[in-house]
Amino acid sequence: MRRVVITGAGTVNALAQDVPGTLQAMAQGRSGIGPLAFRDVERLAIRIGAQVQGWDETRFSPRELALYDRFTQFAVAAADEALAMAGPGLGPATGVIIGSAAGGIATWEDSYRAVFQEGKSRVPPLVVPRLMMNAPASHISMRHGLRGPAFAVSSACASSNHAIGLAFRMIRDGQAQAMLAGGAEAMLCFGGVKAWEGLRVLSPDGCRPFDARRNGMVMGEGAAVFVLEAAEAAAARGAVALAEVAGFGMTADAGDIVVPSGQGAAEAMEQALAEAGLTPQEVGYINAHGTGTQVNDRTEVAAIKQVFGPSASHLMVSSTKAMHGHAIGATGAIELLACILALRDGIVPPTLGLSHPDPACDLDHVPNESRRAHLDAALSNAFAFGGLNAVLALRRA
Hints:
Blueprint: E1 4-13, H1 19-28, E2 34-35, E3 48-49, H2 62-67, H3 70-86, E4 95-99, H4 105-117, H5 127-131, H6 135-144, E5 150-153, H7 159-172, E6 178-185, H8 190-199, E7 222-230, H9 231-236, E8 243-252, H10 262-276, E9 285-287, H11 294-308, E10 316-318, H12 321-324, H13 331-345, E11 347-348, E12 371-372, E13 377-384, E14 388-395
Helix pairs in contact: 3-6, 10-11
């Protein structure tokens, strides 16, 4: 089994439309949450989100725009940046796995409006290719001539962690030399936010993970894509490793469709540690799922304590969702950038909005300001509706 490293990264999110800007915002503790701006937003009860501002679609040709929903545009741009960072020499057998929870929801909404609201009898001929979940993986593959395994993963908020974890396993086990993996989501439209409003889990005034005053999550959008490859192949072509993906754990709660189980989360963390050959004492940072809902935050903290025991008191456990929002299927990929910031640059990103700690969330949540630290290993947690858990274990390269 081979070691697997990350040699390229790309992103579009509410903090920035590239990796350097995103890492800088995370280090500075800036938030991308603000007022939403799109058609019919005034009909929503929730009008805040982490929206990508100033997105320039003209980077794509008219033919591409006919095929690219907003979530595909984000993924393609992120993949372009990741490949540029990784450098030449990956080869055409490279594969692509992109996770998404909703796919081309803006395309669905535009088509429904045309048929039901405007009374039209026809929709554009390319609606199906635009909205399909595998559109980003397919377009990244075609754009760069990548003929390895290419497919989509959809597991709600764990989608991108599942995508990255599967890519890691394929390379480790010799099924691929290199893979692009990550997630993309663009649910910030009237229908997307209205659907989440119905669940009554959205905050009207901000995301405050682990804070006693927290009242829900804030939705975000964007994408992050990474180049993963065998360590020896990366070294042979002179690529610089950002971090090593050392282990992956995935479980199902087999419980409730929306209420998380601490046991399922704990087992996923234990699997990731075991596969990476890490002890709890070796992990210095966890990027928590940390949505800012009452049940999720307390359940996750309890699961971390179960897995790490006495070592939990020495862990730094922050949630970056108060900065980039909960980007649903893309959120784990964006949060992997936070782990790279911690491992490579020695900067642990903060949990914003944490001024009244919940007594039940009594770990070191790095409140409000980033922290300098030398770390050797980190975990990135993603726990999704449907009881689907996906945890990545990372080492400093």
